[in-house]
Amino acid sequence: MYIRHLDEQLRAHFNTYRQAIILLGARQVGKTTLLKRLFPQAAYLLLDNAGVKNILETYDLPTYRQLLGNSSELILDELHLLSNPGRAVKIIYDQLPGTRLIVTGSSSFHIKNKTSESLAGRKIDYHLHPLTFSEYLTQKQIEPHLNFNILDNILNPRPLATHLFSPQEIISNALLYGLYPELISLPQNLPYLQNLADSVVFQDLLELKLIDNKQKAKELLKLLAYQIGNLVNYSELGNKLNLDQRTVKKYCDIFEQSFIIFRLYPYSQRARNEITKSPKIYFWDLGIRNAIINNFDDLHLRPDGGAMFENFIIAELHKINSYQSSLYKMYYWRLKSGSEIDLVLTKGSELYGCEIKTKHTAITPTFATRYPHAHTHVITLENFY
Questions:
Q1: Suppose 385 and one of 142, 167, 247, 324 were both cysteines; which one would form an S-S bond, judging by CB atoms 3.0 to 4.6 Å apart?
Q2: What is the pTM of this model?
């Protein structure tokens, strides 16, 4: 049963907006499958096809009309591959006003930098990520309905839920092999993951000439993969790779805007003794991360199991926050002395501090002392879902 959290938002989009749908997300997260299912009557053009790309790069209105045919809906898949994607969208949006335009891209870096002026006021962005844990369960027909349990359990703590399955057994598969949709039909398929990692990480980046040193970029990504959940020091990474700090930061920016990694920044209302600058880096998908370091060893045999569970929870909450438009801001908190909280959620006056551990532990009292109005929660393998 193929359903995604974005289904209803995208299906209802044109009931409210004339603006184009821009659906962003890494390669293979299911953008094309989702859009073809929701908009089955749309004319579909894949920009990865050289002939289609060349025709669209004429930027000629009659040619565009011919491509559209009798359809009132148009999907442009992988728009970022055009030399001037904003110009193409502007022509269609302004001069074919009855057209419902739907666009995908797997590099927000390229789309934002080449379309910022052309698309102003003409588009609304949506983000599609690898499957959430709930989407995985529904697609495997383990559960019938989607939910946001992982966030709900933090905001409204309740007694441990009773399931007809074991989330603890299923999560080990997600931690090792990730949650890309293709793995529903290709479970634990290592060749697929290795090829996916290579294409997700480098195909678009090289095509778009965003990275000038492929080998150094690979080495940097591998270093980041080994230290998920740790503070990132750009200067230290640069010294290890013989790269200047600015290049390291630039590559991290590109990885983030290509939906490979994301950064979590420190929370502070009192700068004294609190870390205020260094980010932590996490991967959107642990299967990609494990493929990069070529390690699919059993969780019980590896020292990074706790860091992987932390990465999993924080990535899940990022996805849920995006799909639910919850507007929570996400941080970590740490004192220079070492006391820390893995995750801080804030919205308005709401403040939540969460420890993420495979087994139950106590929240550091220092955080509660500094922020007595904060709600605190320990997320474990037993209560995460």
A1: 167
A2: 0.94
